[in-house]
Specification:
By secondary structure, the chain is an alpha/beta fold. It has a domain of 114 residues: Vaccinia Virus protein VP39 (Rossmann fold, 3-Layer(aba) Sandwich). The N and C termini lie far apart (32 Å). A hairpin with a 5-residue loop joins strand 1 and strand 2. The protein is 35% helix and 12% strand. The protein is built from 5 helices and 5 strands; from the N terminus they run ββαβαβααβα.
Amino acid sequence: MTAPAQGSGAGEPSSGHSVRYRPGQVQASPDGRLHSEVFARNAPPLIAALAPFLAWRSGAVLEIGCGTGQHAAAFALAFPGLSWVPSDHDGMHRDSAAAWAAHLRAPAHSPLDIDAATDWADQAQVTALGPLTGVYAGNITHIAPFRVTEGLIAGAGRRLPRAAC
């Protein structure tokens, strides 16, 4: 992982922070898949922890900050009743997420460009998903400025049905 980078222009996080995975810093495949070293250790217990809440549900789950996209592809396979929608503000991360979905033949949605520090809930790409069953942010709040957490919670509060909150 690289050190936090300050946003400096179009396509940069407004939060001033983004942990970026890059070829040469993490293992990368020729098809654009970036490899997080913690994925193999984290994915099975995360799936087990999420299963009681998600295994029986249907609808769209929006993942904020998908990073390499490995978890997004794994979750799409683990929860076939859901439409797993990865998002990241970093274009290379979105490309990696799409490559992971293709590589694993996971039914993941095309990754969206979302900066959680902004008013993301009413963006056309988000409202086009229809009602959300869930919002997942597994790798955000502990590394980002607090305004990202505030934006995440505010957006989830607007996009999730009351019964899901």
